UniProtKB/TrEMBL annotation:
InterPro entries named in the record: Phageshock_PspC_N, PspC
UniProtKB keywords: Cell membrane, Membrane, Transmembrane, Transmembrane helix
Keyword 4Fe-4S: no
A Pfam family the protein falls into: PspC
Organism from which the protein derives: Kineosporia mesophila
Protein name per the record: PspC domain-containing protein
Cell compartments where the protein resides: Cell membrane
Segments passing through the bilayer: 42-65
Phylogenetic placement of the source organism: Bacteria, Bacillati, Actinomycetota, Actinomycetes, Kineosporiales
Membrane topology: Single-pass membrane protein
Domain Phage shock protein PspC N-terminal per the UniProt entry, residue ranges: 12-68
Length: 75
C-alpha cells in the first residue's frame, strides 16, 4: 500500500491539507489536473447521474491517496 501511495505522490496526486470538503479527493484531483476544485466537484456530481462505479472509485481514492501531511512527514 505504501508503494501505491508513494507512486501517487510522485505523480502529484495527494489530498491537500486545506481546501477539501469531504475527504479532499476532488481537491487533490483538481490540483493534479490543473483545474479548480469547484469544477472537479461539479464533474463528479454530474458523473453520478451516469450509471457506474463513481462512488466506489471515490471511496478507493479516499483510502489510497496519501494526505499532504503524510507525504510531507515521510518525505
Amino acid at each position: 500500500m505504501n508503494t501505491v501511495r508513494r507512486n501517487m505522490y510522485e505523480q502529484g496526486l495527494f489530498r491537500p491539507r486545506h481546501g477539501g470538503i469531504l475527504a479532499g479527493v476532488c481537491a487533490g484531483l483538481a490540483r493534479r489536473f490543473g483545474i479548480s476544485p469547484t469544477m472537479m466537484r461539479i464533474i463528479f456530481l454530474v458523473s453520478i447521474i451516469i450509471p457506474g462505479s463513481q462512488v466506489l472509485i471515490y471511496l478507493l481514492l479516499w483510502l489510497l491517496m496519501p494526505k499532504e501531511e503524510t507525504v510531507i512527514h515521510q518525505g
